[in-house]
Design goal:
Helix content is 21%, strand content 21%. The protein has a 5-stranded mixed sheet.
Length: 123
Amino acid sequence: MRLPPKARALFDLRRSGRIPVPGPFGHVSVLPDWGLTVAGAYVIAPPSIDPAELDFCFVAGLSVAIFCRLGEAGLPSDTWLQKVILAVMDAGPVSIAVIDTDQAATGLDHGLVAMYVQRAGND
């Protein structure tokens, strides 16, 4: 397993006992390609790398936003999104927001397509 691209600074920050300052989308955003940027801390999970091969340990206990592009039917065109969600969930974040980049351009309330939250008592 290896860290996703642009994750080294976040990994070092967490290893020193600190957390990233939450941005508008949470503590850490996961982006599908290099052509996107967001305010706050982010990493890249390009479709060319199987998300199961990436180590998201640095998101444990943090809120995460996964940005994706959904098709016209409102569904992912491949399995990338599902694989990224599962890889991030394995790291134990407190929440995961899934945001469609195309819809978010008209307002974040339109872009939020799913929210996963860790229930109290689930360690």
